[in-house]
Amino acid sequence: MHTQITHPESGLNEMVESPTRHESWRMFDRIARRYDLLNRLLSFGRDVAWRKQVTEFLPEGDRLQLLDLATGTTDLLISVCHGSGRIENATGLDMAEKMLRVGQKKIVRERLNDKSSLVRSDAQSLPFTDNSFNAITIAFGIRNIPDVPKALREMTRVLKPDGRAIILEFSLPKNRLMKRLYLFYFRHILPRVGSLISGDAYAYRYLNQTVESFPYGQEFCSMMEEGGMKIVGLKELTFGVASIYTGEKPATKLFGSGKRD
């Protein structure tokens, strides 16, 4: 299946393949052992710097309760906990069990197991009560969720009033030349290298397809607002190949009617 998308920043129309996101966690389980290595190689190490910047957007206050969605091998959870001394408790959530096993070993190695826990569950139906977390983070995972609006509503539900969602995700550069170079890399180089190292050709074709078909910039900000959040900021990283979106749950109840899907 192919979808036509229009990027408001560039005005370009593109036909891109629409990948299936249902049970994508099974794919991540297949590449769990090589996932971290491939992230470093394929992003030229920039993914480490991008994750560190997430810490800068944490809400004010001490003893923060953190939820990291699509936590995978826990790179972001570890980065935020090391980058801020204000995290009292961190919970990582993912559906990919093998990724979580890798992540648990890293948490123990980084001596964060005393304040971190991992949960295997679905971001579309979070197993937490309302108003539980000061901050919710997610890196390169929101585009893999089948029902993104539902996941955004769930994030708003479990955030405390004035709590903040910080979403790090791939995007496309505004500059046309940079965009063409980036798409060439994503379409032709990244899938080949990823397939060679991981042994899973589909996984890295899926990566470039989801990046191209997923909304970004102001379009994604609008989705966050529809999910009940008040947009705080949008920061483009490395010529726009990634972006950090921040949204807050309003202190006054503007979100929903208390009903859940």
Features:
single chain; disordered C terminus; Rossmann fold; alpha/beta
Write up this protein.
This protein has 261 residues and is of the alpha/beta class. It has helices at residues 24-30, 35-42, 46-54, 75-83, 97-109, 148-158, 176-198, 201-213, 218-226; strands spanning 2-7, 12-17, 64-69, 87-94, 116-120, 133-139, 159-170, 230-237, 242-248. The strands form 2 sheets. It has a 7-stranded mixed sheet with strand order 5-4-3-6-7-9-8, sandwiched between helices. The model is unreliable at 1-19 and 254-261 (pLDDT under 50).
Write a concise synopsis of the structure shown:
With 261 residues, the protein is an alpha/beta fold. It is 39% helix and 25% strand.
CATH arch. level architecture of the domain at 29-173 and 216-248:
3-Layer(aba) Sandwich
Per the CATH scheme, the topology name of the domain at 29-173 and 216-248 is Rossmann fold
**Beta-strand share of residues:** 15-25%
Q: If you average the pLDDT, what whole number results?
A: 86
Name of the level-1 CATH class of the domain at 29-173 and 216-248: Alpha Beta
Radius of gyration: 18 Å
User: Could you name the ranges where pLDDT drops below 50 across 5 or more consecutive residues?
Assistant: 1-19, 254-261
Q: Give the end-to-end Cα distance, rounded to a whole number of Å.
A: 27 Å
Task: Chart the SSEs and their pairings.
Layout: E1 2-7, E2 12-17, H1 24-30, H2 35-42, H3 46-54, E3 64-69, H4 75-83, E4 87-94, H5 97-109, E5 116-120, E6 133-139, H6 148-158, E7 159-170, H7 176-198, H8 201-213, H9 218-226, E8 230-237, E9 242-248
